[in-house]
What we know:
Number of domains: 2
Strand content: under 5%
Largest sheet: 2 strands, antiparallel
Helix content: 55-70%
Distance between the termini: 68 Å
Strand order of the largest sheet: 1-2
Structural class: mainly alpha
Shape: globular
Number of helices: 9
Amino acid sequence: MNKYLDRLVNGLFKENPIFVMMLGMCPTLAVTKSAMNGIGMGLSTTAVLIVSNVIIAALRKHIPEKVRMPYFIVIVASMVTVVELLIKAYLPDVNEALGIYIPLIVVNCIIFGRVEAYAAKNSVGLSLFDGIGMGLGFTVALVLIGAFRELLGAGTVFNIRLMPESYEPISIFVQAPGAFLVLAMLTALQNKFKLPSATNGTAKKSELACGGDCAHCSAERFASFHNSASDSSIKKESIRKED
Length: 243
């Protein structure tokens, strides 16, 4: 497969930031009351991700290693400010719907994850397509979650009624708890059908993901901590006996 096309497929399917990597959960849960909100947030993040990736890839050889994170923060924050001002000027309805979550794109772990793990190490062309792929993957995930919540919570998708007039909307799905319920259901389906996901240990291991299997990982960490604590206690006891 063409390496540029592979970056698009990677972001959409192989390492989808929401469904596979489980990154950027805050905006995912907060703004997906409707499919339209999902598009607004997804495309805003995509624009920031694409431009940030391109700029950082172009400057990667001139950015000192020790201060790379401040450089990344300044670049990403500048792009978020530009996007926010454009949305306020030309899309006031979107700005009102998304509110504080537009400026909060600057701390989205998807953005910093990609610029640190990919754009800072690869060419401008590959970084451009990586940003497009990851951004579109994020957007598609938000739209799917938003459409599902809107359909159950209001009987519409993109404000188009799909449910019969007799349908009684389940209002909890357009409230905060509904976001957790929908994400949990979609994750459960992924695990049921053994689809790649960071929650069932089948996500592709990378610099951004450990590959999942959180329960096993926690068990290993507990065992390691317990063994370390035991060794420490034995050493202390030995020192006391020697004294």
